[in-house]
Amino acid sequence: MNAENAHTTPLELTIRRTFDAPRERVFDAWTNTASSVGFWGPQGFTLAFNEVDLRPGGKWRLGMRSASGELHVSAGTYREISAPSRLMLTHGWEDEHGKVRNETVVSVTFTARDGKTDMLFEQVGFESQSSKRGHEGGWTEAFGNLAAGLARTASP
Asked: What average pLDDT does the segment 120-138 reach?
């Protein structure tokens, strides 16, 4: 497992990660609500719900529950789906009225390499350094969960 963070501009986030799994499995973990990998959210969070309409223009919505019981809901729209190599989607957090705020754009590229997957994750459009840092920590933990889930569900 290899992780490297690089920052091209102050309000853009880039994370590179190599997963020990074929890219079809990694792409499936991102897009299939029935996937047994279950990586969404940072450590200590559980998945409350995951709704996916996987098509360009389709909506997605995900609820994560913290250890203290607080529900955090993120949502967005798929802009591009090129299975199993690329996803582009909007990402924002719902407020108490269900309105998405602080919307960013996420691009994820999956490259096959010797039975593994190199993932390039890019998120742009943060409103502040604090928001970027919070997302970086959350995504980094989620990708650790993804690596563990892929290892746990690997075929013998």
From this structure: 95
How many whole angstroms separate alpha carbon 121 and alpha carbon 123?
7
Q: β-pairing, 86-94 with 71-82?
A: antiparallel
Alpha carbon distance 117, 109 (integer Å) = 10
Q: What mean pLDDT, rounded, does the chain reach?
A: 91
Dihedral (CA of 73, 77, 82, 85) sign = negative
- Single pTM value for the model: 0.90
Give the pLDDT score at 2: 45
- Per domain, the residue ranges of the chain are 2-39+81-152
- Judge contact between 26 and 112, C-beta under 8 A: no
Q: E strands along 32-138, which residues?
A: 46-52, 59-65, 71-82, 86-94, 100-113, 116-124
Map tokens 């010797």 to a residue.
114
Q: Does domain 2-39+81-152 have CATH number 3.40.50.2300?
A: no
SS (H, E, C) 114-139: CCEEEEEEEEECCCCHHHHHHHHHHH
Confidence of residue 40 (pLDDT cuts 50, 70, 90): confident
